[in-house]
Specification:
This protein is of the alpha+beta class. It has helices spanning 6-19, 63-70, 98-106, 110-118, 129-141; strands at residues 27-33, 39-45, 48-50, 53-59, 73-80, 85-95, 153-167, 175-181, 187-192. The chain has a single domain (6-192), classed as Pnp Oxidase, Chain A (Roll), CATH 2.30.110. The protein is elongated and about 55 Å long. The structure holds flavin mononucleotide.
């Protein structure tokens, strides 16, 4: 039963994907659009669903960060092949409150924290050594203190406006159920042809 709330239904499917030991359950493709209307897609990790929004973390100055700053329309895509399931989410993105980013950053291993300081994500670098040098530099700089969150790193949350659940079935007669958020904030549910 799909029910009437797509966030609840997502939680149900996510739990079932975890129970089925699906590979990289929380890996999702994030698609953004640049200033020339060119789409760009890459994988990021879902770190939670908070207040009905989908949260992930990245570098605010990365290509995706700049694209989302200029155009908040994004798409998220999950594929759980073990269950023949796909979930498509479209909506608008905004930065999470800095306190949320601080809390998540603090929970990460020191190596990941130093990585966030060391990598000018998406920028062209002359060689690999630059990264290792940066890593050592920040390791020394923060050797006697808690590693703080860099301002250029933090969370985003996606507020969905459209969510589609796809279940593979035999003879390509798959199930597709889409939820559309109406102007009055109510989810409308429809069945789509596969
Ligand atoms: C399994 C997997 C998980 C990833 N998770 C993240 C993530 O949570 N955040 C992130 O910034 N990049 C993550 N990446 C790297 C991104 O796919 C991408 O290379 C990077 O964010 C730079 O993207 P951009 O240049 O389009 O901004 C992940 C890659 C893989 C393959």
């Amino acid at each position: 039963m799909v029910g009437d709330d797509p966030i609840d239904f997502f939680a149900k499917w996510f739990g079932e994907a975890q129970a089925a030991d699906a590979d990289e359950v929380n890996a999702m493709t994030l698609a953004t659009v640049d200033g020339n209307n060119h789409p760009h897609a890459r994988i990021v990790l879902l770190k939670g669903v908070d207040n009905q929004e989908f949260v992930f973390y990245t570098n605010y100055l990365s290509d995706k960060g700049q694209e989302m700053a200029a155009n908040p329309n994004v798409s998220l895509l999950f594929f759980w092949k073990e269950l023949e399931r796909q979930v498509r989410i479209e909506g608008t993105v905004s930065k999470t409150a800095s306190q949320i980013s601080d809390e998540y950053f603090a929970s990460r291993p020191d190596g990941s924290k130093l990585g966030a300081w060391s990598s000018p994500q998406s920028r062209i670098i002359p060689n690999r050594n630059i990264l290792d040098e940066n890593y050592l530099k920040y390791e020394n700089r923060f050797s006697d203190q808690q590693i703080p969150r860099p301002e250029h790193w933090g969370g985003y949350s996606v507020k969905p406006q459209r969510m589609e659940f796809w279940q593979g079935r035999s003879n390509r007669m798959h199930d597709r159920v889409v939820f559309l958020l109406s102007d009055s904030g109510v989810w409308e549910k429809h069945r789509l042809a596969p």
